[in-house]
Amino acid sequence: MADKRDYYEVLGVQKGASEDDIKKAFRKKAKMYHPDLHPDDKEAEKNFKEVNEAYEVLSDKDKKARYDQFGHAGVDPSYGGGGPGGYSAYTGGFDVDDILNSFFGGFGGRRQSNPNAPRRGTDVETVCTVSFEEAAKGCKKKISFQRIENCDECDGSGARRGTVPKTCPACGGSGQVKVNSRTPFGVVQTTRACENCGGKGRTIDNPCPRCDGKGRIRRTQEETFDIPAGIDDGQRLSVQGRGNAGINHGPAGDLYIAVNVRPHPIFERRGNDVYCELPLTFVQACLGAEVVVPTLDGKVSYNIKEGTQPGDRFRLKGRGIPSLNGRGKGDQYVTVTVEVPKNLTKRQKELLMEFDGNSSEKNYANRKGFFNKLKELFGE
């Protein structure tokens, strides 16, 4: 497999660049290689994909941290590593979820009176990166995430097939033992997790070889989900029952999908409205013209009025982004910029001098107003 270029090098930023610097660099590079500007250019298409891939990693805090520490192996399983992203599913043979649930009964912080009672699984969060257009119009996205499931070999019991867990003789199945401690104030009795069974109330003589007696295994899932039209950067989607499996056959937790929207090289979103700039030539601004304006729904024609000024803005009603609740749609606002021509020929300069010589103050309303204010201020 060919080595990938460093993602910071791809975007042209230094390692440790801020989130804003990374976003600005992406906009610049994406605009440079955008397929609309380079039709049928395979090299530009390749560079555009490379820029998108780099931004998808460096714009995500978790992925960026893994990339900074492990390089491509931290974010691409094909480069090796102990699991997706280069991490092992378990540390030192202990499942963190099991430890927390043993002592605190989950994240709720309450101690379980019965360690064998059904408990809800914990929630899972993953990140999905979509393009500006996909966020605006909605799409289906194949998303990879990790979740803990009951082991199908032992049906979550942790015991080898054909055997069953036994009630812990040390705690009688309660998962807790009472300990007497002598203090200056007398004997104090405290309760702590049973060391013999780890607070589970059960012991396993013949552990399941597949899950090593845990009863649960971590798997990487890949499913297709609907991303609704109008989703914005940083918003989360909730999918019930797709989180970690419950303990003792309790209900599963939920899956939360954090949506990351890539910036667009042309459009900018503000609420449900879309903003962009439209460069005009000097002549188009002076005389007016029919121009083509890009929108999320394709290109549309618009008549520029005669005498349009730099900074003038016009609205395209209903060309923005739909509301998440399906009610209404934003508008598109287009700001005009006028590009001053460079590298003029001698003849072009002569024509402009002739034009300027035939111009008067009435042709320049802003200029006339400016000098009138100067006269009022300085009396000249």
Task: Please summarize what this structure is.
It contains 9 helices and 15 strands.
Would you mind describing this structure in some detail?
Helix 2 packs antiparallel against helix 3 (42-58). With 380 residues, this protein is an alpha+beta fold. Strand 12 (289-295) and strand 13 (298-304) form a beta hairpin. The protein has helices spanning 7-11, 19-33, 42-58, 61-70, 96-104, 132-137, 282-287, 346-357, 365-378; strands at 124-130, 139-150, 166-167, 176-183, 186-193, 202-203, 216-227, 236-239, 255-261, 268-270, 273-281, 289-295, 298-304, 313-316, 332-339.
Fill in the keyword field for this structure.
three-stranded mixed sheet, 15 strands, alpha+beta, 380 residues
**DSSP, total strands:** 15
C-alpha termini separation: 75 Å
Estimate what percentage of residues fall within beta strands.
25-35%
Instruction: Please give the largest β-sheet.
Output: 4 strands, mixed
- Record the strand order, biggest sheet: 10-11-15-14
State the helix count: 9
Strand and helix map with partners:
Elements: H1 7-11, H2 19-33, H3 42-58, H4 61-70, H5 96-104, E1 124-130, H6 132-137, E2 139-150, E3 166-167, E4 176-183, E5 186-193, E6 202-203, E7 216-227, E8 236-239, E9 255-261, E10 268-270, E11 273-281, H7 282-287, E12 289-295, E13 298-304, E14 313-316, E15 332-339, H8 346-357, H9 365-378
Parallel strand pairs: 1-9, 11-15
Antiparallel strand pairs: 2-7, 3-6, 4-5, 8-9, 10-11, 12-13, 14-15
Helix pairs in contact: 2-3
